Amino acid sequence: MSRVIVISLLVCLLFNCKEHKTTSVVKEPSIEKPFVWESANLYFLLTDRFNNGDTSNDTNFDRSKTTGKLRGFEGGDLKGITKKIKEGYFSDLGVNAIWMTPIVEQIHGGTDEGTGVTYGFHGYWTKDWTAIDPNFGTKDDLHELVSEAHKKGIRILLDAVINHTGPVTEKDPVWPESWVRTSPQCGYTNYENTITCTLVKNLPDIKTESNDAVELPPQLVDKWKAEGRYDEEVAELNAFFERTGHPRAPRFYIMKWLTDYITEFGIDGYRVDTVKHTEEFVWQEFKTACDFAFKTYKTNHPEMVLDDNEFYLVGEVYNYGISGGQVFNFGDKTVNYFDPPSFQSLINFEFKWNAKELNYEDLFKRYYKILSNDLKDFGTLNYLSSHDDGSPFDARRAQPFETANKLLLSPGTAQIYYGDESARSLVVEGTVGDATLRSNMNWQAIQNDDTTGLILTHWQKLGTFRERHPAIGAGLHQMITEEPYVFYRSYSEGQYEDLVVIGLELNKGAKEINVSRIYDDGTVLHDAYSNQDVTVKNGKALIDSEFEMVLLEMK
C-alpha cells in the first residue's frame, strides 16, 4: 500500500467515516520486513529447566546435597536450547528473541533458608562473571547457540546482574569489604533503603555507588591462577581501564566482564536484573559500555550482523507499571530509567492486572495510547507469568487461549514464559515459594497430550502471525466494529508498510468481516488462523471456519 492510501485510511477510521473508498489495494514488490524490538516475541526460559541436551554436565562442584523440591540443578543447558532452535521449536512459535537466565558460574555451595538446600540453578548467584557455569555448558556451546539462533533470525538476550554476588556458603567466602556490603537489609520504603542495602539476608550488595579503586577479590585471583588464566584476565582488565579511563571501582569490573559476552559471542541484548536497587547513573554507564561492545563486535564480524538495531537493554524495575509512563516512584523520589538514555524498555508488572480487569478493546486501546504518547520512542515488555511473580495471570492454566490472545495481540513486546504455550502448570505441590513457578518444561505433554497440542497450535498460529507483522506490537490500533469485535493494526517504516485485520470472539461457522473501509472489492486476503484465502466482495470478507478468530493479511 502507498503511504497516501494508509494516511487516508487512518484519517477516515479515526473520524468514524461511514463511507470510504480507496483506490485498489495492490501488493507492491516485497520490501524486507524490519525487526522491531517493540513488537518482538521474546521467549524467556530458565536455562536449567528448559531442555537437557548434555547429561554429562548435570553435576559439578560436588553440588550433590539433597535439595528442596525444584531447588537444585535439573540438567537444562545451552545444548538443550540449541537443539530446540535447530529443530525449529522457536520458529514454529514465532519467537524472534530468546532471553535466558544468567549462565555465569554460580556459587559452588548451597543455602538453606527454611526452603531446603538451594543451589544457584537460576543463575542469579554469581561467583565468577568471567566463566560459564559448567552445569549450563561451555563457551563453545554458547557460540553455537548464538550462531544457530541468528541463522533463524532469532536474537539472544542474556541476563545481567550487577547489583549483588551470590550468597556466602562454606564453599563461597564473602567478597572483600571494599566490594560489597552485607548490611543493612533493604526496607523498600524509600530511595535510600532500596539501593544502599542488601536485597535479602546473605546476598552481599555490590558497592555500585563507589568510585574507589579496588583490588581483585582474592578468591577470584586464586581461582584464575588455578585455572591458568590469571595473566590473561588481568591483561584484559588493564586494557579496559586504560581505554575507558574508568576508576577500578567494583561496578566497572563487572561491566567489563558482562560486555565481554557481547564482543566475544555477539549477543543482541541484556535483560538487566534488580535495576531499581542500583543507582540510575550505573545504567547509563552500562549502556555506553554495551553500545561500544556491540559496535566493536559488528565491526569485527560484519558477516554476523543481522541489522542496524542498537544493542537492546530491557530493565527489571520491580513493580514498575506502564501507567507510570517513563518514571518510577520510590515514594520520596521519582526516577526516569529511559532518559538520560539507559533502557529501551522496562518489564511491565502491571500487564497481568490489566489483562484481568479489561476486555480486549479496552486493553489494546489503553496500551496503544500510552505507547504512542508517554512512552513514544520507547517500549514495554508485557508478561502474564514469570519466574518470580507469585501472582500470575493464570497459575492453573485454565485460560491458555485467552492468555495467548491478550499477550500476543497487545501492543508492546510480548514475553512468553517457557511453558505459557503448553500450559505448563505454575502450581506444583510440595514446592516452597518461587520454586512452584520453575518446573521443568513439559515436553512429554507436548508430545503426547492432545489438549496440550491444541493449546500449542493456537499459540503457534498467533505467534507466527505476530512475528510476520510488526504492526501487531508496534503499530496503530483502531477498532473497526464492536460487534463482532474486529480491529486493525498498521505500521510503516521507510518504504515498508504493514496492515492486518483481526477478529476475536466471532461465531463459529460462516462469518462476515466488514473490511469496506480498508480493502476494495476483489482484494485477495489470507486468514492465517484457518489457513484459507478469501476475496473481498461487497466490502465483506466471508469466512467459513470452525474457529472464533480470524487473522487477515494481504495474500
Description:
The protein has helices at residues 3-14, 47-50, 78-87, 89-92, 139-151, 192-195, 218-227, 230-244, 250-265, 280-300, 351-357, 360-372, 400-409, 443-448, 450-468, 471-474, and strands at residues 41-45, 97-100, 104-106, 126-132, 155-160, 180-181, 205-206, 269-272, 312-315, 327-329, 334-336, 345-348, 379-383, 413-417, 476-481, 485-493, 496-504, 509-514, 524-527, 532-535, 540-545, 550-554. With 555 residues, the protein is α/β, with parallel strands linked by helices. The chain has two domains: 3-30 and 475-554, Sandwich (Immunoglobulin-like), CATH 2.60.40; 37-472, TIM Barrel (Alpha-Beta Barrel), CATH 3.20.20. The strands form six sheets. An eight-stranded parallel barrel has the order 1-2-5-8-9-12-13-14. It has a six-stranded antiparallel sheet with strand order 15-16-17-22-19-20. A hairpin with a 4-residue loop joins strand 10 and strand 11. The longest helix is centred in the middle third of the chain and has 21 residues, at 280-300. The model is unreliable at 1-27 (pLDDT under 50).
